[in-house]
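thought: user wants a sequence for this fold. calling inverse folding tool.
action: design(structure=
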Protein backbone atom coordinates (compact mmCIF):
# COMPACT_ATOMS: atom_id res chain seq x y z
CA UNK A 1 0.00 0.00 0.00
CA UNK A 2 1.38 3.38 -1.01
CA UNK A 3 1.98 6.21 1.45
CA UNK A 4 -0.62 8.44 -0.21
CA UNK A 5 -3.32 5.76 0.16
CA UNK A 6 -2.40 5.21 3.80
CA UNK A 7 -2.33 8.93 4.55
CA UNK A 8 -5.65 9.73 2.90
CA UNK A 9 -7.30 6.72 4.57
CA UNK A 10 -6.06 7.80 7.98
CA UNK A 11 -7.13 11.39 7.35
CA UNK A 12 -10.64 10.29 6.31
CA UNK A 13 -10.91 8.16 9.44
CA UNK A 14 -9.61 11.04 11.58
CA UNK A 15 -12.12 13.49 10.06
CA UNK A 16 -15.01 11.04 10.60
CA UNK A 17 -13.97 10.29 14.19
CA UNK A 18 -13.51 14.02 14.85
CA UNK A 19 -16.97 14.80 13.46
CA UNK A 20 -18.62 12.11 15.59
CA UNK A 21 -16.65 13.20 18.66
CA UNK A 22 -17.55 16.82 17.98
CA UNK A 23 -21.22 15.91 17.67
CA UNK A 24 -21.16 13.98 20.96
CA UNK A 25 -19.26 16.73 22.75
CA UNK A 26 -21.61 19.42 21.47
CA UNK A 27 -24.64 17.40 22.50
CA UNK A 28 -23.17 16.67 25.93
CA UNK A 29 -21.61 20.06 26.70
CA UNK A 30 -22.72 22.87 24.39
CA UNK A 31 -26.37 22.00 23.66
CA UNK A 32 -27.32 21.75 27.37
CA UNK A 33 -25.97 25.30 27.70
CA UNK A 34 -28.51 26.53 25.15
CA UNK A 35 -31.29 24.65 26.97
CA UNK A 36 -30.14 26.14 30.27
CA UNK A 37 -30.12 29.63 28.70
CA UNK A 38 -33.64 29.02 27.41
CA UNK A 39 -34.86 27.93 30.85
CA UNK A 40 -33.12 30.86 32.50
CA UNK A 41 -34.80 33.24 30.03
CA UNK A 42 -38.18 31.63 30.80
CA UNK A 43 -37.60 31.98 34.54
CA UNK A 44 -36.64 35.63 34.03
CA UNK A 45 -39.92 36.18 32.14
CA UNK A 46 -41.93 34.64 34.97
CA UNK A 47 -39.94 36.59 37.51
CA UNK A 48 -40.77 39.75 35.57
CA UNK A 49 -44.51 38.93 35.81
CA UNK A 50 -44.24 38.36 39.57
CA UNK A 51 -42.33 41.62 39.95
CA UNK A 52 -45.03 43.42 37.96
CA UNK A 53 -47.70 42.05 40.33
CA UNK A 54 -45.57 43.10 43.33
CA UNK A 55 -45.10 46.53 41.76
CA UNK A 56 -48.87 46.84 41.42
CA UNK A 57 -49.24 45.88 45.09
CA UNK A 58 -46.57 48.45 46.07
CA UNK A 59 -48.30 51.19 44.07
CA UNK A 60 -51.58 50.42 45.82
CA UNK A 61 -49.79 50.49 49.18
CA UNK A 62 -48.37 53.93 48.38
CA UNK A 63 -51.91 55.21 47.64
CA UNK A 64 -53.23 53.70 50.89
CA UNK A 65 -50.33 55.30 52.79
CA UNK A 66 -51.27 58.73 51.43
CA UNK A 67 -54.90 58.34 52.59
CA UNK A 68 -54.09 56.68 55.95
CA UNK A 69 -51.55 59.32 57.03
CA UNK A 70 -53.85 62.32 56.60
CA UNK A 71 -55.43 64.52 59.23
CA UNK A 72 -58.74 64.56 57.31
CA UNK A 73 -58.96 60.76 57.37
CA UNK A 74 -57.87 60.77 61.02
CA UNK A 75 -60.72 63.16 61.99
CA UNK A 76 -63.23 61.13 59.98
CA UNK A 77 -62.25 57.91 61.78
CA UNK A 78 -62.82 59.62 65.15
CA UNK A 79 -65.79 61.94 64.40
CA UNK A 80 -67.48 60.29 61.37
CA UNK A 81 -67.77 63.38 59.18
CA UNK A 82 -70.26 62.31 56.50
CA UNK A 83 -68.83 64.75 53.94
CA UNK A 84 -65.46 62.97 53.97
CA UNK A 85 -66.56 60.25 51.53
CA UNK A 86 -68.19 62.67 49.10
CA UNK A 87 -65.23 65.01 49.06
CA UNK A 88 -62.32 62.52 49.08
CA UNK A 89 -63.50 59.12 47.85
CA UNK A 90 -64.77 60.33 44.47
CA UNK A 91 -65.74 58.18 41.49
CA UNK A 92 -63.23 60.00 39.29
CA UNK A 93 -60.37 59.21 41.70
CA UNK A 94 -61.39 55.59 42.10
CA UNK A 95 -61.73 55.19 38.30
CA UNK A 96 -58.32 56.72 37.74
CA UNK A 97 -56.66 54.59 40.43
CA UNK A 98 -58.55 51.41 39.40
CA UNK A 99 -59.71 50.91 43.03
CA UNK A 100 -62.94 48.97 43.39
CA UNK A 101 -63.04 48.04 47.13
CA UNK A 102 -62.81 50.54 49.98
CA UNK A 103 -62.69 49.77 53.67
CA UNK A 104 -62.36 52.23 56.55
CA UNK A 105 -62.48 50.92 60.14
CA UNK A 106 -62.62 52.83 63.37
CA UNK A 107 -60.58 52.49 66.55
CA UNK A 108 -62.59 49.51 67.71
CA UNK A 109 -62.17 47.86 64.28
CA UNK A 110 -65.80 48.69 63.54
CA UNK A 111 -66.50 49.17 59.86
CA UNK A 112 -67.11 52.83 58.99
CA UNK A 113 -67.06 52.27 55.23
CA UNK A 114 -67.24 48.99 53.31
CA UNK A 115 -68.04 49.80 49.71
CA UNK A 116 -67.59 48.42 46.20
CA UNK A 117 -67.10 50.79 43.26
CA UNK A 118 -68.86 49.63 40.09
CA UNK A 119 -66.80 50.90 37.18
CA UNK A 120 -69.63 50.25 34.71
CA UNK A 121 -72.20 52.28 36.69
CA UNK A 122 -69.58 54.71 38.02
CA UNK A 123 -71.04 54.57 41.58
CA UNK A 124 -70.28 53.24 45.05
CA UNK A 125 -72.30 50.29 46.23
CA UNK A 126 -72.35 48.27 49.48
CA UNK A 127 -69.44 45.81 49.44
CA UNK A 128 -71.59 42.87 50.43
CA UNK A 129 -69.64 39.66 50.00
CA UNK A 130 -66.53 41.69 49.06
CA UNK A 131 -66.37 43.43 52.42
CA UNK A 132 -62.92 43.02 53.94
CA UNK A 133 -64.50 42.19 57.30
CA UNK A 134 -66.09 39.17 55.61
CA UNK A 135 -63.22 38.03 53.37
CA UNK A 136 -60.37 38.67 55.82
CA UNK A 137 -61.19 35.91 58.25
CA UNK A 138 -57.81 36.04 59.97
CA UNK A 139 -58.13 39.77 60.57
CA UNK A 140 -54.61 40.55 59.29
CA UNK A 141 -55.90 43.67 57.55
CA UNK A 142 -57.43 45.14 60.71
CA UNK A 143 -55.29 44.35 63.72
CA UNK A 144 -52.47 46.82 63.06
CA UNK A 145 -50.96 47.76 66.41
CA UNK A 146 -47.79 49.51 65.21
CA UNK A 147 -47.76 52.93 63.51
CA UNK A 148 -45.31 51.51 60.92
CA UNK A 149 -47.35 48.36 60.31
CA UNK A 150 -48.37 47.54 56.76
CA UNK A 151 -50.23 44.59 55.25
CA UNK A 152 -50.27 44.19 51.47
CA UNK A 153 -50.68 41.37 49.01
CA UNK A 154 -53.31 39.19 47.41
CA UNK A 155 -56.48 38.34 49.30
CA UNK A 156 -58.90 35.60 48.14
CA UNK A 157 -62.53 36.64 47.70
CA UNK A 158 -65.77 35.21 46.27
CA UNK A 159 -65.16 37.19 43.06
CA UNK A 160 -61.56 36.13 42.71
CA UNK A 161 -58.20 37.40 43.96
CA UNK A 162 -58.07 40.93 45.30
CA UNK A 163 -54.93 43.03 45.50
CA UNK A 164 -55.24 44.71 48.90
CA UNK A 165 -53.17 47.07 51.01
CA UNK A 166 -53.85 48.11 54.64
CA UNK A 167 -52.24 50.76 56.87
CA UNK A 168 -53.09 52.28 60.28
CA UNK A 169 -54.88 55.65 60.22
CA UNK A 170 -52.51 58.31 61.61
CA UNK A 171 -52.06 62.05 61.60
CA UNK A 172 -50.31 63.67 58.65
CA UNK A 173 -47.15 63.88 60.76
CA UNK A 174 -47.23 60.10 61.11
CA UNK A 175 -48.00 60.26 64.81
CA UNK A 176 -50.70 58.33 66.69
CA UNK A 177 -52.50 57.11 68.50
CA UNK A 178 -53.88 54.81 65.82
CA UNK A 179 -57.39 55.89 64.90
CA UNK A 180 -58.33 52.88 62.80
CA UNK A 181 -57.42 51.10 59.60
CA UNK A 182 -57.60 52.21 55.95
CA UNK A 183 -57.88 49.53 53.24
CA UNK A 184 -58.03 49.71 49.41
CA UNK A 185 -58.48 46.79 47.04
CA UNK A 186 -58.26 46.02 43.32
CA UNK A 187 -59.74 42.96 41.67
CA UNK A 188 -57.17 40.79 39.90
CA UNK A 189 -59.53 40.13 36.99
CA UNK A 190 -59.08 39.47 33.26
CA UNK A 191 -58.50 43.17 32.58
CA UNK A 192 -55.71 43.35 35.18
CA UNK A 193 -54.21 40.16 33.76
CA UNK A 194 -54.20 41.59 30.23
CA UNK A 195 -52.62 44.79 31.48
CA UNK A 196 -49.79 42.74 33.02
CA UNK A 197 -49.32 40.83 29.75
CA UNK A 198 -48.87 44.06 27.83
CA UNK A 199 -46.60 45.46 30.51
CA UNK A 200 -44.29 42.43 30.79
CA UNK A 201 -44.64 41.23 27.16
CA UNK A 202 -45.12 37.70 28.52
CA UNK A 203 -48.09 35.67 27.28
CA UNK A 204 -49.06 34.02 30.55
CA UNK A 205 -52.22 32.64 32.09
CA UNK A 206 -53.18 32.99 35.76
CA UNK A 207 -55.01 30.16 37.52
CA UNK A 208 -56.76 30.96 40.82
CA UNK A 209 -55.91 28.35 43.42
CA UNK A 210 -58.23 27.17 46.18
CA UNK A 211 -61.80 26.07 45.85
CA UNK A 212 -61.94 23.39 43.15
CA UNK A 213 -58.84 23.77 40.97
CA UNK A 214 -58.28 21.69 37.86
CA UNK A 215 -56.71 18.29 38.74
CA UNK A 216 -53.73 18.93 36.44
CA UNK A 217 -53.12 22.28 38.13
CA UNK A 218 -53.52 20.69 41.53
CA UNK A 219 -50.93 18.05 40.58
CA UNK A 220 -48.51 20.70 39.38
CA UNK A 221 -49.03 22.68 42.60
CA UNK A 222 -48.12 19.62 44.64
CA UNK A 223 -44.93 19.23 42.54
CA UNK A 224 -44.02 22.89 43.01
CA UNK A 225 -44.54 22.72 46.77
CA UNK A 226 -42.52 19.49 46.88
CA UNK A 227 -39.57 20.94 44.95
CA UNK A 228 -39.72 24.23 46.82
CA UNK A 229 -38.93 26.33 43.72
CA UNK A 230 -41.80 28.77 43.18
CA UNK A 231 -40.45 30.18 39.89
CA UNK A 232 -39.18 27.69 37.34
CA UNK A 233 -39.75 25.73 34.14
CA UNK A 234 -40.95 22.27 33.21
CA UNK A 235 -40.67 20.27 30.01
CA UNK A 236 -43.72 18.48 28.70
CA UNK A 237 -43.63 15.04 27.14
CA UNK A 238 -44.14 16.57 23.70
CA UNK A 239 -40.91 18.59 24.11
CA UNK A 240 -42.62 21.94 24.79
CA UNK A 241 -41.35 24.17 27.61
CA UNK A 242 -43.59 25.83 30.19
CA UNK A 243 -42.69 28.53 32.68
CA UNK A 244 -44.51 28.79 35.99
CA UNK A 245 -44.60 31.05 39.03
CA UNK A 246 -46.49 30.61 42.29
CA UNK A 247 -47.91 33.74 43.96
CA UNK A 248 -48.98 33.51 47.61
CA UNK A 249 -51.66 35.54 49.39
CA UNK A 250 -51.30 37.63 52.56
CA UNK A 251 -51.65 34.46 54.66
CA UNK A 252 -48.79 32.71 52.86
CA UNK A 253 -51.10 30.28 51.10
CA UNK A 254 -50.92 29.66 47.30
CA UNK A 255 -53.18 32.15 45.55
CA UNK A 256 -52.21 32.25 41.86
CA UNK A 257 -50.39 29.88 39.54
CA UNK A 258 -48.93 31.76 36.58
CA UNK A 259 -48.09 29.68 33.50
CA UNK A 260 -46.61 30.59 30.13
CA UNK A 261 -45.83 28.55 27.02
CA UNK A 262 -42.20 29.28 26.06
CA UNK A 263 -41.05 29.26 22.46
CA UNK A 264 -37.98 27.06 22.10
CA UNK A 265 -36.06 29.50 19.91
CA UNK A 266 -32.78 29.30 21.85
CA UNK A 267 -32.58 25.51 21.90
CA UNK A 268 -33.52 25.54 18.20
CA UNK A 269 -30.57 27.83 17.52
CA UNK A 270 -28.35 25.53 19.56
CA UNK A 271 -29.51 22.52 17.55
CA UNK A 272 -28.80 24.37 14.30
CA UNK A 273 -25.36 25.38 15.54
CA UNK A 274 -24.62 21.77 16.44
CA UNK A 275 -25.42 20.41 12.99
CA UNK A 276 -23.80 23.31 11.14
CA UNK A 277 -20.63 22.74 13.16
CA UNK A 278 -20.55 19.03 12.33
CA UNK A 279 -21.32 19.60 8.64
CA UNK A 280 -18.71 22.36 8.52
CA UNK A 281 -16.13 20.02 10.00
CA UNK A 282 -16.95 17.34 7.43
CA UNK A 283 -16.76 19.85 4.59
CA UNK A 284 -13.48 21.28 5.89
CA UNK A 285 -12.12 17.75 6.26
CA UNK A 286 -13.02 16.96 2.64
CA UNK A 287 -11.29 20.13 1.44
CA UNK A 288 -8.22 19.40 3.56
CA UNK A 289 -8.06 15.84 2.26
CA UNK A 290 -8.21 17.04 -1.35
CA UNK A 291 -5.54 19.67 -0.75
CA UNK A 292 -3.39 17.18 1.16
CA UNK A 293 -3.55 14.69 -1.70
CA UNK A 294 -2.17 17.32 -4.08
CA UNK A 295 0.43 18.65 -1.66
CA UNK A 296 1.48 15.15 -0.66
CA UNK A 297 2.29 14.31 -4.25
CA UNK A 298 3.98 17.64 -4.88
CA UNK A 299 5.93 18.13 -1.65
CA UNK A 300 6.54 14.62 -0.31
CA UNK A 301 5.93 11.67 -2.56
CA UNK A 302 7.48 13.16 -5.69
CA UNK A 303 10.75 14.22 -4.02
CA UNK A 304 10.99 10.99 -2.01
CA UNK A 305 10.53 8.90 -5.15
CA UNK A 306 13.18 10.88 -6.96
CA UNK A 307 15.60 10.65 -4.07
CA UNK A 308 14.94 6.94 -3.80
CA UNK A 309 15.90 6.47 -7.43
CA UNK A 310 19.18 8.30 -6.81
CA UNK A 311 19.99 6.17 -3.78
CA UNK A 312 19.25 3.00 -5.75
CA UNK A 313 21.52 4.17 -8.52
CA UNK A 314 24.37 4.77 -6.06
CA UNK A 315 23.80 1.31 -4.59
CA UNK A 316 23.86 -0.32 -8.01
CA UNK A 317 27.10 1.47 -8.94
CA UNK A 318 28.81 -0.07 -5.92
CA UNK A 319 29.86 3.24 -4.29
CA UNK A 320 28.34 2.25 -0.93
CA UNK A 321 27.65 -1.03 0.83
CA UNK A 322 24.12 -1.98 1.81
CA UNK A 323 22.71 -2.60 5.29
CA UNK A 324 19.38 -4.08 6.29
CA UNK A 325 16.84 -1.25 6.66
CA UNK A 326 13.41 -1.19 8.32
CA UNK A 327 10.99 -3.87 7.16
CA UNK A 328 8.54 -1.69 5.24
CA UNK A 329 6.94 -2.24 1.85
CA UNK A 330 6.66 1.46 0.88
CA UNK A 331 9.11 4.04 -0.42
CA UNK A 332 10.14 5.19 3.06
CA UNK A 333 11.15 1.68 4.04
CA UNK A 334 13.27 1.36 0.94
CA UNK A 335 14.75 4.79 1.48
CA UNK A 336 15.57 3.90 5.08
CA UNK A 337 17.47 0.79 4.06
CA UNK A 338 19.46 2.75 1.49
CA UNK A 339 20.30 5.39 4.06
CA UNK A 340 21.56 2.66 6.39
CA UNK A 341 23.91 1.56 3.65
CA UNK A 342 25.19 5.09 3.17
CA UNK A 343 25.68 5.60 6.90
CA UNK A 344 27.70 2.41 7.15
CA UNK A 345 29.90 3.55 4.31
CA UNK A 346 30.29 6.98 5.90
CA UNK A 347 31.41 5.32 9.14
CA UNK A 348 34.14 3.50 7.22
CA UNK A 349 35.12 6.69 5.40
CA UNK A 350 35.52 8.45 8.74
CA UNK A 351 38.29 6.02 9.70
CA UNK A 352 40.13 6.88 6.52
CA UNK A 353 39.67 10.59 7.11
CA UNK A 354 41.27 10.29 10.54
CA UNK A 355 44.51 9.37 8.85
CA UNK A 356 44.39 12.58 6.87
CA UNK A 357 43.35 14.78 9.77
CA UNK A 358 46.85 14.95 11.24
CA UNK A 359 48.29 16.89 8.33
CA UNK A 360 45.21 19.08 8.19
CA UNK A 361 45.52 19.69 11.92
CA UNK A 362 49.15 20.71 11.61
CA UNK A 363 48.26 23.13 8.84
CA UNK A 364 45.35 24.49 10.86
CA UNK A 365 47.52 24.94 13.96
CA UNK A 366 50.26 26.60 11.94
CA UNK A 367 47.71 29.00 10.45
CA UNK A 368 46.45 29.92 13.90
CA UNK A 369 49.91 30.36 15.39
CA UNK A 370 51.07 32.45 12.44
CA UNK A 371 47.97 34.60 12.92
CA UNK A 372 48.98 35.16 16.56
CA UNK A 373 52.53 35.96 15.50
CA UNK A 374 51.15 38.51 13.05
CA UNK A 375 49.20 40.03 15.92
CA UNK A 376 52.49 40.48 17.77
CA UNK A 377 54.26 41.85 14.70
CA UNK A 378 51.60 44.50 14.06
CA UNK A 379 52.51 46.83 16.97
CA UNK A 380 56.20 45.97 16.41
CA UNK A 381 55.96 47.30 12.86
CA UNK A 382 54.24 50.43 14.13
CA UNK A 383 57.08 51.01 16.60
CA UNK A 384 59.70 50.53 13.90
CA UNK A 385 57.89 53.05 11.72
CA UNK A 386 57.89 55.66 14.45
CA UNK A 387 61.52 54.86 15.27
CA UNK A 388 62.46 55.42 11.66
CA UNK A 389 60.72 58.78 11.72
CA UNK A 390 62.46 59.79 14.94
CA UNK A 391 65.96 58.78 13.78
CA UNK A 392 65.68 60.42 10.37
CA UNK A 393 68.70 62.71 9.79
CA UNK A 394 67.66 66.30 9.97
CA UNK A 395 69.34 69.11 8.15
CA UNK A 396 72.26 70.31 10.38
CA UNK A 397 73.32 73.24 8.21
CA UNK A 398 71.42 75.72 10.39
CA UNK A 399 73.38 74.75 13.51
CA UNK A 400 76.72 74.89 11.59
CA UNK A 401 75.93 78.35 10.28
CA UNK A 402 74.94 79.43 13.77
CA UNK A 403 78.27 78.19 15.18
CA UNK A 404 80.24 79.91 12.41
CA UNK A 405 78.40 83.16 13.05
CA UNK A 406 79.01 82.84 16.78
CA UNK A 407 82.83 82.71 16.15
CA UNK A 408 82.85 85.97 14.15
CA UNK A 409 84.08 88.76 16.40
CA UNK A 410 82.13 91.49 14.68
CA UNK A 411 78.76 89.93 15.52
CA UNK A 412 76.89 92.07 18.06
CA UNK A 413 76.54 90.75 21.60
CA UNK A 414 72.74 90.55 21.55
CA UNK A 415 72.91 88.57 18.29
CA UNK A 416 75.34 86.14 19.93
CA UNK A 417 72.93 85.67 22.86
CA UNK A 418 70.12 84.74 20.45
CA UNK A 419 72.41 82.33 18.56
CA UNK A 420 73.42 80.64 21.82
CA UNK A 421 69.77 80.24 22.82
CA UNK A 422 68.94 78.69 19.45
CA UNK A 423 71.84 76.21 19.75
CA UNK A 424 70.75 75.25 23.31
CA UNK A 425 67.15 74.70 22.16
CA UNK A 426 68.30 72.57 19.23
CA UNK A 427 70.40 70.41 21.57
CA UNK A 428 67.42 69.97 23.90
CA UNK A 429 65.21 68.82 21.04
CA UNK A 430 67.89 66.33 20.02
CA UNK A 431 68.07 65.03 23.60
CA UNK A 432 64.28 64.52 23.74
CA UNK A 433 64.46 62.64 20.48
CA UNK A 434 67.13 60.32 21.87
CA UNK A 435 64.93 59.62 24.95
CA UNK A 436 61.92 58.76 22.77
CA UNK A 437 64.13 56.56 20.64
CA UNK A 438 65.33 54.74 23.76
CA UNK A 439 61.67 54.20 24.85
CA UNK A 440 60.73 52.82 21.45
CA UNK A 441 63.76 50.50 21.50
CA UNK A 442 62.73 49.27 24.97
CA UNK A 443 59.23 48.59 23.61
CA UNK A 444 60.74 46.74 20.65
CA UNK A 445 62.68 44.54 23.07
CA UNK A 446 59.42 43.72 24.93
CA UNK A 447 57.67 42.91 21.65
CA UNK A 448 60.48 40.60 20.61
CA UNK A 449 60.30 38.88 24.02
CA UNK A 450 56.55 38.30 23.52
CA UNK A 451 57.23 36.97 20.04
CA UNK A 452 59.83 34.63 21.50
CA UNK A 453 57.30 33.39 24.09
CA UNK A 454 54.78 32.66 21.33
CA UNK A 455 57.37 30.58 19.48
CA UNK A 456 58.29 28.76 22.69
CA UNK A 457 54.62 27.99 23.37
CA UNK A 458 54.29 26.69 19.85
CA UNK A 459 57.33 24.45 20.37
CA UNK A 460 55.91 23.04 23.64
CA UNK A 461 52.51 22.53 22.03
CA UNK A 462 54.03 20.64 19.11
CA UNK A 463 55.67 18.17 21.52
CA UNK A 464 52.47 17.61 23.53
CA UNK A 465 49.61 15.48 22.28
CA UNK A 466 47.04 17.56 20.40
CA UNK A 467 44.17 15.72 22.09
CA UNK A 468 45.45 16.12 25.65
CA UNK A 469 43.57 18.51 27.92
CA UNK A 470 44.59 19.76 31.32
CA UNK A 471 42.91 21.24 34.36
CA UNK A 472 43.13 25.01 33.90
CA UNK A 473 42.10 28.07 35.88
CA UNK A 474 40.58 30.61 33.52
CA UNK A 475 41.49 33.48 35.83
CA UNK A 476 45.19 32.64 35.53
CA UNK A 477 44.98 32.22 31.77
CA UNK A 478 43.26 35.59 31.39
CA UNK A 479 45.87 37.37 33.52
CA UNK A 480 48.72 35.72 31.57
CA UNK A 481 47.13 36.73 28.29
CA UNK A 482 46.72 40.35 29.40
CA UNK A 483 50.43 40.36 30.32
CA UNK A 484 51.28 39.08 26.81
CA UNK A 485 49.37 41.85 25.05
CA UNK A 486 51.50 44.31 23.10
CA UNK A 487 51.01 48.02 23.61
CA UNK A 488 49.25 50.02 20.95
CA UNK A 489 50.52 53.61 21.21
CA UNK A 490 47.65 54.96 19.09
CA UNK A 491 44.82 53.21 20.98
CA UNK A 492 43.82 53.65 24.62
CA UNK A 493 42.16 50.48 25.94
CA UNK A 494 40.98 49.68 29.47
CA UNK A 495 40.64 45.97 30.31
CA UNK A 496 38.34 45.31 33.29
CA UNK A 497 38.26 41.80 34.78
CA UNK A 498 35.16 41.08 36.86
CA UNK A 499 35.51 39.43 40.28
CA UNK A 500 33.22 36.61 39.10
CA UNK A 501 36.10 35.17 37.07
CA UNK A 502 38.21 34.29 40.10
CA UNK A 503 35.28 32.47 41.75
CA UNK A 504 34.84 29.96 38.90
CA UNK A 505 35.93 26.31 39.23
CA UNK A 506 38.77 24.85 37.09
CA UNK A 507 37.98 23.82 33.51
CA UNK A 508 39.32 21.25 31.07
CA UNK A 509 41.36 22.88 28.30
CA UNK A 510 44.78 23.61 26.84
CA UNK A 511 46.35 26.62 28.48
CA UNK A 512 48.55 27.36 25.44
CA UNK A 513 45.61 27.32 23.05
CA UNK A 514 43.41 29.30 25.47
CA UNK A 515 46.07 31.99 25.85
CA UNK A 516 46.34 32.43 22.11
CA UNK A 517 42.56 32.31 21.59
CA UNK A 518 42.09 35.03 24.23
CA UNK A 519 45.09 36.91 22.82
CA UNK A 520 43.45 36.86 19.39
CA UNK A 521 40.08 38.03 20.78
CA UNK A 522 41.69 40.84 22.81
CA UNK A 523 43.71 42.05 19.79
CA UNK A 524 40.47 42.02 17.78
CA UNK A 525 38.80 44.09 20.53
CA UNK A 526 41.61 46.68 20.37
CA UNK A 527 41.30 46.88 16.59
CA UNK A 528 37.49 47.19 16.88
CA UNK A 529 37.85 50.12 19.29
CA UNK A 530 40.38 51.75 16.95
CA UNK A 531 37.94 51.28 14.02
CA UNK A 532 35.14 52.93 15.98
CA UNK A 533 37.22 56.04 16.69
CA UNK A 534 36.22 55.81 20.36
CA UNK A 535 38.93 56.71 22.89
CA UNK A 536 39.40 55.40 25.43
CA UNK A 537 37.83 51.98 24.72
CA UNK A 538 36.84 49.31 27.21
CA UNK A 539 36.98 45.51 27.31
CA UNK A 540 34.99 43.84 30.11
CA UNK A 541 35.75 40.22 31.03
CA UNK A 542 33.38 38.22 33.25
CA UNK A 543 32.40 34.59 33.84
CA UNK A 544 29.47 32.55 35.08
CA UNK A 545 28.57 28.89 35.65
CA UNK A 546 26.02 27.43 33.18
CA UNK A 547 24.61 24.01 32.32
CA UNK A 548 24.59 22.59 28.77
CA UNK A 549 23.10 19.14 28.14
CA UNK A 550 23.17 18.30 31.89
CA UNK A 551 26.88 19.18 32.18
CA UNK A 552 28.46 22.13 34.00
CA UNK A 553 30.37 24.69 31.93
CA UNK A 554 32.15 27.93 32.77
CA UNK A 555 31.13 30.63 30.32
CA UNK A 556 33.73 33.37 29.77
CA UNK A 557 32.38 36.62 28.33
CA UNK A 558 34.49 39.26 26.56
CA UNK A 559 32.54 42.43 25.70
CA UNK A 560 34.11 45.42 23.95
CA UNK A 561 32.56 48.76 22.99
CA UNK A 562 34.16 48.79 19.55
CA UNK A 563 32.72 49.06 16.06
CA UNK A 564 30.53 45.95 16.40
CA UNK A 565 29.44 43.44 13.73
CA UNK A 566 26.61 43.75 11.22
CA UNK A 567 23.75 41.24 11.62
CA UNK A 568 24.27 39.73 8.16
CA UNK A 569 27.96 39.10 8.98
CA UNK A 570 27.48 37.23 12.30
CA UNK A 571 26.73 33.75 10.78
CA UNK A 572 30.00 33.85 8.79
CA UNK A 573 32.32 35.20 11.46
CA UNK A 574 33.98 31.84 12.26
CA UNK A 575 34.29 30.74 8.63
CA UNK A 576 37.72 30.03 7.21
CA UNK A 577 39.05 32.93 5.16
CA UNK A 578 36.24 35.29 6.20
CA UNK A 579 37.19 38.61 7.79
CA UNK A 580 35.65 42.04 8.21
CA UNK A 581 39.16 43.61 8.10
CA UNK A 582 40.99 44.70 5.01
CA UNK A 583 44.31 43.24 3.95
CA UNK A 584 45.78 39.91 2.87
CA UNK A 585 46.01 36.77 4.99
CA UNK A 586 42.97 37.61 7.09
CA UNK A 587 40.20 35.30 8.30
CA UNK A 588 42.17 32.53 10.00
CA UNK A 589 42.29 33.70 13.64
CA UNK A 590 38.61 33.21 14.60
CA UNK A 591 38.37 30.05 12.49
CA UNK A 592 41.37 28.56 14.30
CA UNK A 593 39.96 29.71 17.68
CA UNK A 594 36.58 28.06 17.02
CA UNK A 595 38.25 24.77 16.03
CA UNK A 596 40.45 24.79 19.13
CA UNK A 597 37.49 25.45 21.44
CA UNK A 598 35.53 22.62 19.79
CA UNK A 599 38.53 20.26 20.19
CA UNK A 600 38.52 21.04 23.92
CA UNK A 601 34.82 20.11 24.17
CA UNK A 602 33.68 23.70 24.46
CA UNK A 603 31.57 26.17 22.51
CA UNK A 604 32.15 29.71 21.25
CA UNK A 605 29.53 32.15 19.99
CA UNK A 606 29.57 35.83 19.06
CA UNK A 607 26.85 38.41 19.67
CA UNK A 608 26.45 41.99 18.48
CA UNK A 609 23.50 44.34 18.21
CA UNK A 610 24.95 45.80 15.02
CA UNK A 611 27.52 48.32 13.83
CA UNK A 612 28.37 50.83 16.55
CA UNK A 613 27.11 48.67 19.46
CA UNK A 614 30.17 46.61 20.38
CA UNK A 615 30.74 42.85 20.34
CA UNK A 616 30.48 40.03 22.90
CA UNK A 617 32.32 36.69 22.59
CA UNK A 618 31.12 33.86 24.85
CA UNK A 619 33.43 30.88 25.43
CA UNK A 620 32.02 27.87 27.30
CA UNK A 621 34.46 25.23 28.61
CA UNK A 622 33.56 22.06 30.58
CA UNK A 623 34.15 22.14 34.32
CA UNK A 624 36.97 19.81 35.41
CA UNK A 625 35.15 18.83 38.63
CA UNK A 626 31.32 19.04 38.95
CA UNK A 627 30.16 21.94 41.09
CA UNK A 628 28.54 19.62 43.66
CA UNK A 629 31.76 17.65 44.15
CA UNK A 630 33.81 20.83 44.37
CA UNK A 631 31.49 22.16 47.08
CA UNK A 632 31.82 18.89 49.03
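)
observation: tool returned 632 residues.
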Amino acid sequence: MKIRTKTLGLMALAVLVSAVANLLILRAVVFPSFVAMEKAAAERDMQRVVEAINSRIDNLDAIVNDYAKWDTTYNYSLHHNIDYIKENITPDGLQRLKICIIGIYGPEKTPLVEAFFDFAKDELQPAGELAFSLTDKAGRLFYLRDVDAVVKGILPSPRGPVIAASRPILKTSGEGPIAGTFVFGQLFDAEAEETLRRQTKVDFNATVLGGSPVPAVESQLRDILKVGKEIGTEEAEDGSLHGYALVRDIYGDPALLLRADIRRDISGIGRDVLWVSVLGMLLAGAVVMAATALLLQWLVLGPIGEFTRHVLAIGRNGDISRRVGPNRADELGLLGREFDAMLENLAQARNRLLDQSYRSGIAEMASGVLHNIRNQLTPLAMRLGRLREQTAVEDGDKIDRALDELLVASVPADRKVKIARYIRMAMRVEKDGRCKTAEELSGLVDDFVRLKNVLQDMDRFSRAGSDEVEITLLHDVVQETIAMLPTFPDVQMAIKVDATLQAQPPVLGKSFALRHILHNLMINAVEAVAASGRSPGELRISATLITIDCRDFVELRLHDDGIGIAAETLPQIFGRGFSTKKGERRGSGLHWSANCIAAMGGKIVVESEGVGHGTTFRLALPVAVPATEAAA
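thought: summarizing for user.
answer: Here is the designed sequence. The two ends are 61 Å apart (CA to CA).
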